[in-house]
Amino acid sequence: MEIDFEKMQGLVPAVVQDAANGEVLMLGFMNSESLQKTLQTGYVTFYSRTRNKLWTKGETSGNRLRLLEAATDCDQDTILCKVYVEGDGLVCHEGTRSCFTRPMSIATASEVSNG
Q1: What's the rounded Cα separation, in Å, for the pair 37 and 111?
Q2: Which residues contact 49 (CB under 8 A, 6 or more apart)?
Q3: For 17, 42, 94, 107, which has the most beta carbons within 10 A of its beta carbon?
């Protein structure tokens, strides 16, 4: 399967989801090399845009992401990684299970239609 790495200058978003319950755990970016390493080793590896290098999630913390399934979207420019979290289960560098822990305020449908 061909992934379209060219849309974002060699990178694609990679959504990480808990295979057991569907919880979205994090979002990272992959290049062709990190995707190949992920598929070959069975552990999710990203490309760090700030450090300009590959990094395997959990290589220092022990909270590795064991890949159980991988899929691409219909445009072939995003990857979904369904994983089992090894270690103590904390995926975020802030010590939480998911990186998505900061709620945002949104208007309700009635506020929008009355506004």
Answers
A1: 48
A2: 11, 29
A3: 17
Q: Which residues contact 2 (CB under 8 A, 6 or more apart)?
A: 76
Q: Residue written as tokens 């919880």?
A: 23
Which amino acid, residue 15? Answer: V
Q: What letters, b where the CB count within 10 A reaches 16 and e where it falls short, cover 94-112?
A: eeebebeeeeeeeeeeeee
**CATH, domain range 12-114:** 3.10.20.810
Question: Using an 8 Å Cβ cutoff, are 14 and 29 in contact?
Answer: yes
pLDDT digits (tens, 9 = 90+) for 53-108: 999 999 989 999 999 999 999 999 999 999 999 999 999 999 999 999 999 999 88
Angle among Cα 82, 89, 26 to the nearest 5 degrees reads: 50
> For the CA atoms of the chain, what is the radius of gyration?
16
Residue 9 gets which letter from DSSP?
Answer: T
Question: Residue ranges of the domains in the chain?
Answer: 12-114
Give the rounded percent of residues in the chain with a pLDDT score beyond 90.
87
